[in-house]
Amino acid sequence: MNLLKSYLLPRIAQWVITVFIGITVTFIIPRLIPGDPVERTLSSLGSLQTLDPRAVESLKEALADLYGLDGTQFDQYINFWKRLFKGDLGPSLSAFPTPVIEIIAKGLPWTVGLLTTSTLISWSLGIALGTLAGYSPKRLWWQIVDKAFISIYPIPHYILALILVMVFSYYFPIFPLVGGASGKPTLSWTYISSIFEHSLLPATSLIVLSTAFRFIMAKALTTTVAGSDYVGYAETAGLSKWRIVLFYVIQNTMLPQVTDLGLSLGAVFSGALIIEIVFSYPGIGYSLYMGVFQADFNLILGITIFSIVGIATAALIVDLSYPLLDPRVRYK
Amino acid sequence: MKIRFDIISWLIVVGLSSVLSLGCKDQPGTTETTSSSSTKSQLPVDVPRQDVFVVDQIFRYSIVENFNLWMPGPPSPTRQGLIMDTLWYIDQETGEPINALASQPPIYNKDFTQMTVKLRSGVYWSDRVEFTADDLVFTVNNLKSHLGMNWSTELDLFVKKVEKLDDYTVVFDLNLPNPRFHYYFEVRYNAVWMQPKHIWQEVEDPMTFKFNPLVSLGAYEYADADPAGYWELFKRRDDWQRTTAGMLTEKEGPPYIMTIFYGGSERKAIAMARHELDLFMNVDYEAFQAVLQKTPTARSWYKSFPWAYPNELNGRYFGFNLGQDTVLNNKQVRWALTLALDIVDLQTEYIGGVARVTAIPQPATPRLMELYHDPLEEWLKSFQIEIEEGQFYHPYDDSVTERIANWAKTQEYNVPTDASKLRLMFGTGWWKHDLKVAERLLLNNGFTRNANGQWLKPDGKLWTISMIVAPDEVDIYRLAIGAQDQWADFGLKLELETLQRDPYSTRNYMGEFEAISSWGNATSGDATADKWQSIFGLHSRFYTPVGKSTAGSGSSNTLRIKSKEMDSIIDELDRLHPEDQRVVELGQAFMKLWIENMYSIVTISFKKFVTTDEHYWTGFPTSENPFIQPLYWFGGGRFTLQHVEPVSQIAPNR
Amino acid sequence: MKILKDLFKHHLAFRAGAVIVLLVFLLVSLSFFSPYEATERRVVPKNQAPSLNHILGTTALGQDVFWLLTFAIRNSLMVAGLAVLIGRSIAVLLGSFSGYMGGGVDKVLQSIVDSFIVIPRLPLLILISVIVKGGLNLWGLALLLGFLDIFWPSKRYRSQILSLREREFTYTAVFSGMNTFNIILKEHFPFFIPYLLADAVSGFLWAIGMEITLAILGLCDLTRPTIGTMIYWGNYYQALLSQRLWVLAAPVIGSIFIVVAFYLISTSLSEYLDPRTRLKRLGASQ
Q1: What domains does chain B contain, in order, with CATH numbers?
Q2: CB neighbours of A114 closer than 8 A, spacing ≥ 6?
Q3: Residue with the larger pLDDT of the pair C212 and B648
Q4: Contact B25 C245 (CB under 8 A)
Q5: In the A/C pair of chains, how many CB contacts fall below 8 A?
Q6: DSSP string, A82-130
């Protein structure tokens, strides 16, 4: 009970404050975009058909009314929270009257699926390779791996992705050019294998780059641990190399790695814009991007809320699970 | 030991990566064979490749399966033509009016306060209900009573009463005289689409209604879509002969039409090389060259140079913000800037020679050239500007097309020798490139040069102009860097501000720029003689001051022009029926006024590399057979797509 | 100075890194002697593959890739360097202040920091670049990148400080009557600096990467050559599709070199400065 009061409650209160401030900031900033959503709609209409100027004024009023943009900013803010507690993110202003939640529901599974999988793979791969490389840095093989990752790491994601597309969709047209799957969503093998086929290139580009990052991190951490006393004792005690790596090295570098994993997983909600642009892969990154340009406040806010809550919650979970991971830490 | 390994391992990494990159470089020769030999289509739909015509979707939809195209929102290219219909169309290539759901042109009363429409019989909705006057009357009333929907406030403004006389006759009573009221029902890009009364009358809130399942009035109906908005599939209706597209073309069209968004130019080029894209709207010049190389069956409007489709009804210009107090408000300064430009260099080195030059604010298409450019040629030749008190100068140069043709010959392109054919290929004359006169114009207006030859403004400060431009609009960007280079040679620094397209548009509408490289407003045209659509919004009664958006006031006057003479031209034009004889005269008067004041420097017409791959499908219009608009993404594209037919060797059993 | 000499003697990695950095700076300083202005076009033949006349080839607009690269690296280094300098110095101050003060101050500061951490950075960057009128110039970009890279690092620095505070030698120092400032300077900083250096390199990388991303999206000043805008324009004129790889290769390989060099230097520096390895080295040389 004491634990709850002295640790859990303040930590949860902190979560609430963080989320509140984060959402408030994301409410305010998009409203600073020059030009308002009604004018955006009118200008995109005007580029397709002649709007009679004599009828535009009343159309403008009607749209402002529909979009719920009348009243002061503060009123809109209060209304926003009222709606949010009812689970309503409001209508998208660039695709009025489609509810924002509908747009998110279509894109989010792709984004989350791709990013979660590739994060998990690159995390495990990076740590495994990095730890081994850090433990036996003098082997030629690990030296090569080390250099390769250091050189890959700075390659801009966009360039790597573009090269993958050129090589595997153009010179060797093996992979599909567009989308996340083919055919209707079913539980059939063809559908599931098409998901795999479509995601392979995007995932590869993500995995290669973030494995490089994890590798460098893990190697650095391992180098410090490998030089520590207890690993030295273990070596003198003649424990097998695998035992040492598994039980002494990895275990002691795990804490920061798990923290990082948690936060990376929390961050998957903000989308992978470059992936969507280069591979024409579905997701919410592009919706968010276009939302910014079309001053679609509701859409920006709707997607960002997921991201904010995602990261804040991941941090919360990581914090709460520290004692489970590291017996030295106790709730104070 | 460690040192050696270190060096060795670096060498290995560098070596491996260079081998890899060289390997990629050597591959391209094999592309064609590998892609054509792969039989499995990687299109995301389960339809035989020979049955589906795959067209470029232009952009990714944020929502699909919502067919309520009456709500203002993201535009709906291509599909509006496939599934919707309305009374009339104007073919954007030939300028011919097409009677679609209407059986004849609109009939007005004398003072244009009443319009009668005769409807075609035998046109059916896809749910086998006949389209009748009830649907038209319902649509107009339904839109009128839901302000905020597309066309709602305009119909509300003009329509006093709409009623049917019989199943095929409808009469509109108007609040105000309007000789162009039928424009709302006449498609360029889109127009008031018909709603099936038997569906929509049950709908409680037409604004949130998704119109799904769709009841189509076009030759196609909805079949499938990517929830992420990358593609949409349409299936030909069994009773396509009971639609206007079927009736008027008497062609069946492909069994399936798929619109698909691949992304940027390079991705469209890749998709076409893989034969997974049969038709695209546009790519940039470099990607188009790659398409020509990699896809031998692909072609654009012309079979060879200058390839691109030149007849889309719009043009490019350099504009100046006349609502701000700068030296650019002086028309002599604008003339000086014009004469400091070399149009031949702009059109060739920066645009690749693939667009038509136009000196007047009107796109240089064959039909409009007959109506405007040709009749104005004599006036242009005799037109003079005053350089100094009593000193006049002829700025027009009719040798432009010939010089462009000479450049084309140096590039080893085949060009016609006949002057009139050259004019059709490269457009009209333009303004002389005369730095001497440009200099005199500036000197007379108090400008001076400093020791480095750079221009100083009358107030003694260094003259720089800041121009906004959006690089993703390829032509306006390339023209802008051309102007930057050419004005630099003249001693004037042009600062380019590169913006993403949306912030660019906002700045344009708000008047927050000094100069702009842009397109549209007065420079755009109509496929008919009528200039009303592109200039009505320039009337000073809709003038929007700098800092307020022209989009919010419905004005197209982003340049902030205020002219009494222009107002009177527009006022007179507004009262005339578009087929009145005087319409062309007024259009010409408008253009003369524009040139005398050099409100904006008009450069070239639009060009688009509208390209088809004739691997699976053929029948698309070309310069040899320009029977219909290739602008398939416009509403009128419904007729164009109907003409597409399979290449015979693909389906030998037919 | 002595440190540098030492490092140069003992560390191959440092030597290699230093040589590359030197080369990079040489390249940057060459930009001041470029025969062409950074924004000049049509000064050399278009689309030439690398040759003796143009060792890195030429662009579609008739610019020499080599000279363009000198400007690009200069601008990118400036942006990333400034961003790291701004971001990390505020982050160090914020993190250590929060860490040493603890209590209520720490709580308030951490709430603010957390609230910014949870907002995804790329969308925020895109948003701000759209809001800033006239787009982002190089200075604005550096400032913005610096600002956005305060919060994460400050949190890491704080936890670093917290753990240092709990270490044995801190208690020893406190008992032996050292004042706080001295403790921080003499006892904590030697441990903190290597960490900071390694971290600064990752910040540098992030800034370069973000500059490239924003340029690719067309959201920063595309008229100034940077590594990002070189990639943007290379791509804009279809370097990959038209087999003109050299236009893209130059900035990409350039950025790899820069990052690898800084990486090598930072690892060798932190290894050198790390008190534990220093002790070891002393033991070995005796």
Answers
A1: 85-200 (3.90.76.10), 315-605 (3.10.105.10)
A2: A199, A202, A203, A206, A272, A275, A281, A283
A3: C212
A4: yes
A5: 121
A6: HHHHTT---B-STTTTSBHHHHHHHHHHHHHHHHHHHHHHHHHHHHHHH
When the pLDDT of each residue in chain C is averaged and rounded to a whole number, the result is 84
Q: Assess B167–C contact: CB distance below 8 Å, yes or no.
A: no
* pLDDT at C285 (0 to 100): 47
Distance CA A60, CA A51 (A): 12
Q: What domain count does chain C have?
A: 1
Q: Report which of A32, A31, A27, A36 is spatially closest to residue A80, judged by C-alpha positions.
A: A27
Instruction: Note the pLDDT tens digit of each residue in B248-297.
Output: 999 999 999 999 999 999 999 999 999 999 999 999 999 999 999 999 99
- Per-residue pLDDT of C272-285, as tens digits, reads 776 666 666 555 54
What stretches of chain A show up as alpha helix (H) in DSSP? 2-3, 9-28, 37-46, 53-67, 73-85, 100-135, 140-152, 157-165, 189-226, 229-236, 241-243, 251-266, 273-279, 285-293, 297-325
Among the partner residues A18, A150, A315, nearest to C260 by beta-carbon distance: A150
Measure in Å the smallest separation between the Cα of C240 and chain B Cα atoms: 9
Q: What does the pLDDT read at residue A268?
A: 87
CB contact under 8 A, A56 and B27: no
Q: Give the residue from chain A lying closest to C274, CA to CA.
A: A224
CA distances B271 to A59, B281, C243, Å, are: 41, 13, 17
Per-residue burial over C108-147, b if 16 or more Cβ lie within 10 Å, else e, is ebbeebbbbbbbbbbbbbbbbbbebeebbebebbbbbbbb
Q: Residues B465-484: pLDDT tens digits?
A: 999 999 989 999 999 999 99
d(CA A269, CA A273): 11
Q: Which of A18, A224, A270 sits opposite C114 (nearest CB)?
A: A18
| Structure confidence at residue B23 (pLDDT) | 54
**Chain A residues closer than 8 Å to C118 by CB:** 18-19, 22, 307-309, 311-312, 315
Per-residue pLDDT, B491: 96
Q: Is B246 exposed, middle or buried (0-12, 13-18, 19+ CB in 10 A)?
A: buried
**Which residue bears the tokens 């009221």?**
B181
Residue B614's contacts (CB-CB under 8 Å, 6 or more residues apart) are B297, B298, B299, B647
Would you state the pLDDT for residue B26?
Answer: 46
| Nearest partner of A223 among C274, C189, C159, judged by Cα | C274
Phi, psi at residue B427, to the nearest 5°? 95, -160
- Determine if residue B70 is left, alpha or beta; phi over 0 gives left, psi from -120 to 50 gives alpha, anything else beta: alpha
Q: Which of B384, B296, B397, B290 is nearest to B347 (CA)?
A: B397
* Confidence label for B39 from pLDDT (cuts 50, 70 and 90): very low
Domain that holds residue C239: 2-285
Domains located in chain A, CATH noted: 38-86 (no CATH), 103-225+253-293 (1.10.3720.10)
Question: Between the CA atoms of B245, B249, B253 and B259, what dihedral angle is there, to the nearest 10 degrees?
Answer: -50
CATH number at residue C185: 1.10.3720.10
Distance of CA A243 to the CA centre of its chain: 34
Q: Is the pLDDT of residue A49 over 80?
A: no
- Closest to B642 measured CA to CA, from B187, B190, B104, B220: B220
CB A166 within 8 A of CB B250: no
Q: Quickly count: other Cβ atoms within 10 Å of residue A116's Cβ.
A: 13
| Shortest CA gap C222–chain B (Å) | 6
C213 interaction partners in chain A (CB closer than 8 Å): 156-158, 274
**What would the pLDDT profile of A223-264 be if each residue is shown by its tens digit?**
777 777 777 777 777 777 777 877 777 777 777 788 888 888
